[in-house]
Amino acid sequence: MPAVWAVSSIGVGSDRLHDRVLVVAEESVDDDDTDELAGTVRILLTRGQVRAFIDRADEVVSGGRPPCQWCGQPLNAGRPCP
Question: How many Cα atoms are found within 13 Å in the side-chain-facing hemisphere of 39?
Fold first, then answer.
């Protein structure tokens, strides 16, 4: 699925009154397009949702990236294949 918008910054905080973790993501906007306002998303997560996210992130990261079929280096490593 293609990204709807790119994130420029992410902040994490806590809502102690409601026992939630707050995640705020702000959209990256080109400096050339001053008419466009950056989007913002605020997400409140329960402790269980945060734990599930961490468990899934650990699983994905530990799986690594598949190797390139030509050079054997990880795919999409930010460099062209030699």
Answer: 6
